[in-house]
Amino acid sequence: MSRNPITPLPRLGRRLVAFGENLRLARLRRRLTASQVAERAGVSTRTLSAAEHGDAGVSLGVYANVLFVLGLDSDLEALGRDDEFGRRLQDAGLLIPRRVRRKAGGESHTVSVEKGSQEAEA
Question: How far apart are CA 26 and CA 32, in angstroms?
Fold first, then answer.
């Protein structure tokens, strides 16, 4: 079965290359060979090389294993932590209508979610 290459958007591709280079530099600073890191991470040296070159086809699990071997796995916790765009949307008070219900008297109200709470509008 042939593998479909993943082509990331240019900006993402540059970030993956920089990330891979950071992994390589971290490995070299620790004076570990590619063979040692690959063996400890449970991957081939070819896969490790692909990760160090920022190949978008390398799974997140491989990157996580390599980070763990290098003692950098706590960096994974920072991914997606500061969701500035999401916070701006939340602060704008965007309401997401969930459903319209009919009450017994024929009245209807919309249940919306705003900042984690439910409000009913008559």
Answer: 9
Q: Could you give all domains of the chain from N- to C-terminal order, each with its CATH number?
A: 10-78 (1.10.260.40), 84-121 (no CATH)
SS (H, E, C) the chain: CCCCCCCCCHHHHHHHHHHHHHHHHHHHHCCCCHHHHHHHHCCCHHHHHHHHCCCCCCCHHHHHHHHHHCCCHHHHHHCCCCCHHHHHHHHCCCCEEEEEEECCCCCEEEEEEECCEEEEEC
CA–CA separation, 111 and 106 (whole Å): 16
Distances (CA, A) of 87 to 63, 90, 93, 112: 28, 5, 10, 18
* pLDDT of 74 higher than 80: yes
- Percent of the chain, pLDDT > 70? 74
The position carrying tokens 């997401």 is 96
pLDDT of residue 78 exceeding 50, the answer is yes
